[in-house]
Design brief:
Elements (H helix, E strand, L loop, with lengths): L2 E4 L10 H15 L4 E4 L9 H9 L2 E8 L6 E9 L3 E5 L1 H4 L16 H12 L4 E5 L10 H6 L3 E3 L18 E3 L5 H4 L2 E5 L12 H5 L7 H22 L11 H13 L2 E3 L1 H8 L2 H4 L5 E4 L3 E2 L8 H10 L4 E6 L1 E2 L4 H6 L3 E4 L7 H4 L3 H18 L1
Parallel strand pairs: 1-2, 1-11, 5-6, 6-9, 9-10, 11-13, 12-14, 13-15
Antiparallel strand pairs: 3-4, 4-5, 7-8
InterPro entries: Glyc_kinase_flavodox-like_fold (IPR018193), Glycerate_kinase (IPR004381), Glycerate_kinase_RE-like (IPR018197), Glycerate_kinase_sf (IPR036129)
GO molecular function: glycerate kinase activity
Protein name: Glycerate kinase
Length: about 375
């Protein structure tokens, strides 16, 4: 083996993508000391996305004090600038759920600080901004973010204000023409791995409101206000966000990014593969090692393993998936380009017992697999 690419997803609650890459690399070098190894920790848009991209590509992490989840409060935000004039902003750097502690209230929290990070990145002369969604404390449909970028929200009296979840129904007019001119020239891609609509039984308030502190009454109220906002978006932005899968992500931020910035909602793995120029990296590669905590029929919808396999298949590169659990209906993975699937679970024990063994079991699984390939 002369060249290998490591691009696993994290095993949620067990090992980060970077930790998995490190373990895989160590085992490969035992058997193939001269092997060129490219490690690409996978980012899904949530907390840790900036660090994952920087580890994979290099670049600079920039810190900036910005508005936190509550207006008037400041947090130490950050974003990354990658080679090629690309910035990566994760909303968790300014509007994450852990930041509010016991003060959960999606009717009052804001994404304004995320907009400030985007504005700062734009001032650096970047040509593209990747915005990661995940772990938000908000339900403001990115109105706070957009306001920080110059978009004007006016009430029925013509007065400008910054909407939060509880005041979305007060938006009578949206003026995107006042947006920062620099931003209008920058391509913005939003990482989004869910397909929830803006409102309704499967919408942002109903599905994600409870974890952000919303009770049944607040969920109903937020949902109605998002419906009203969506009508204004149709008229003033020309976008029916309810028809866009993923518009309900991060408290409606998915829909807001499309309506206000004409952003593209893109699966996390697709964004990663595009940003690291994965197609080019595949040249002369012998094996791609990928994986996720569990592979099953749902994985075929476009999770990490399948996203990687589809690209590798086009260049006839072998793909080995190292996973925690193997569920039902995984046969389709082989058709997509996966060469083999191996579970790290060496003994039949409950997850609580398997979790502390995971790192060592991963190393032993890699060792067994590599010993076999080396003997061929």
């Amino acid at each position: 083996m002369k060249k290998a690419i490591l691009i696993p997803d994290s095993f949620k609650g067990t090992m980060s993508s970077a930790e998995i890459c490190s373990i895989m690399k160590k085992e490969i070098l035992k058997f193939y000391p001269q092997c060129e190894i490219i490690s690409i920790p996978v980012a899904d848009g949530g907390e840790g996305s900036v660090d994952a991209f920087l580890e994979a590509l290099g670049g600079e992490k920039i810190y900036k004090k910005v508005c936190g989840p509550y207006s008037g409060e400041t947090v130490d935000g950050y974003y990354g600038v990658l080679p090629g004039n690309v910035a990566i902003v994760e909303m968790a750097a300014a509007a994450a759920l852990p930041m509010v502690g016991d003060r959960k209230d999606p009717s009052k929290t804001t994404t304004y600080g995320v907009g400030q990070l985007i504005m700062d990145a734009a001032s650096k002369g970047v040509e593209k901004i990747i915005v990661g969604l995940g772990g938000s404390a908000t339900n403001d449909a990115a109105c706070g973010l957009a306001a920080a970028c110059g978009v004007k929200f006016l009430n029925s009296e013509g007065k400008e204000f910054i909407p939060v979840g509880g005041t979305l129904d007060q938006v009578a007019k949206i003026d995107t023409s006042t947006m920062c001119e620099e931003l209008k020239k920058i391509k913005i891609v939003t990482m989004c791995d869910i397909d929830n609509p803006f409102y309704g039984p499967e919408g942002a308030p109903a599905i994600y409101g409870p974890q952000k502190g919303a009770d049944e009454a607040m969920i109903k109220d937020l949902d109605e206000k998002m419906r009203k906002l969506s009508e204004v978006m149709i008229r003033d932005c020309g976008v029916d966000v309810q028809q866009i899968p993923g518009s309900g992500a991060a408290g409606g931020m998915g829909g807001g990014m499309v309506a206000f910035f004409k952003s593209e909602l893109q699966m996390g793995i697709e964004t990663v593969l595009e940003t690291v120029h994965f197609d080019d990296l595949l040249d002369n590669t012998d094996f791609v090692f990928t994986g996720e905590g569990r592979i099953d029929g749902q994985s075929l919808r476009g999770k990490v393993v399948i996203g990687v396999a589809r690209k590798a298949k086009a260049k006839n590169v072998k793909v080995v998936a190292i996973v925690g659990d193997i569920g039902n209906d995984v046969g389709g993975a082989y058709k997509e380009g996966v060469t083999g699937i191996f579970s790290i679970n060496r003994v039949a024990v409950p997850y609580k017992e398997a979790r502390p063994r995971a790192k060592n079991d991963l190393a032993l699984t890699m060792e067994n697999l590599l010993a076999y390939t080396a003997a061929l």
